[in-house]
């Protein structure tokens, strides 16, 4: 910012910013620091924004989990990492991550794997499954869930 903002101008500007979309306390703190606002002023502004419900980390967490799961099709591990980067406490993050319906979660993973399978070139099933597993893990899904969704034959079936 070229001209120094007064405390009231900074509060009004950031309140307007918060009213357009969900933001967490850490994002607003970072923005105010970039604007060159003093630390004690930032603390007062953040407290006021929280008391007036412009920012609420739990509400932000719920929206973040929902958006990243449903629209970006991220797995729980990647969402948890994103929340960690936003400085959301892990107990809050996992409370909302554990609310994700398991059937819907596995259904999204199956759909991702099915569409990815069409674009993978592999010499055999072993290579194909390895590539699918790496893809799903990069999307933040856990290995136990990936194995449930990839059709990996049991060892007994391979012997016959």
In short:
The chain is an all-alpha fold and 160 residues long.
Measured by DSSP, the beta-strand proportion falls in under 5%
Largest sheet: none
- Distance between termini? 71 Å
* Secondary-structure-derived class: mainly alpha
CA-based shape: elongated
The average pLDDT score comes to 91
How many runs of DSSP E, i.e. beta strands? 0
Keywords:
160 residues; mainly alpha; 10 helices; 0% strand; disordered C terminus
Can you offer a commentary on this structure?
- By secondary structure, this protein is mainly alpha-helical.
- The protein contains ten helices and no strands.
- Residues 10-49 form the RecX first three-helical domain.
Helices and strands in order, then pairings?
Elements: H1 7-20, H2 25-34, H3 39-51, H4 57-70, H5 76-85, H6 90-97, H7 102-117, H8 125-138, H9 143-149, H10 155-159
């Amino acid at each position: 910012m070229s001209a120094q903002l007064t405390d009231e101008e900074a509060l009004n500007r950031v309140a307007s910013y918060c009213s357009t979309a969900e933001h967490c306390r850490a994002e607003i703190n970072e923005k105010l620091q970039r604007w060159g606002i003093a630390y004690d002023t930032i603390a007062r502004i953040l407290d006021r924004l929280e008391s007036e419900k412009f920012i609420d980390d739990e509400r932000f967490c719920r929206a973040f989990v929902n958006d990243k799961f449903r629209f970006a099709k991220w797995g729980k591990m990647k969402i948890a990492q994103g929340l960690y980067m936003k400085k959301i406490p892990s107990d809050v993050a996992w409370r909302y991550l554990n609310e994700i319906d398991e059937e819907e979660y596995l259904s999204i993973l199956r759909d991702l794997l099915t569409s990815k399978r069409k674009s993978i070139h592999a010499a055999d099933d072993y290579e194909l499954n390895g590539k699918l597993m790496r893809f799903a893990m990069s999307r933040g899904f856990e290995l136990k869930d990936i194995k449930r969704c990839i059709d990996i034959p049991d060892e007994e079936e391979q012997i016959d």
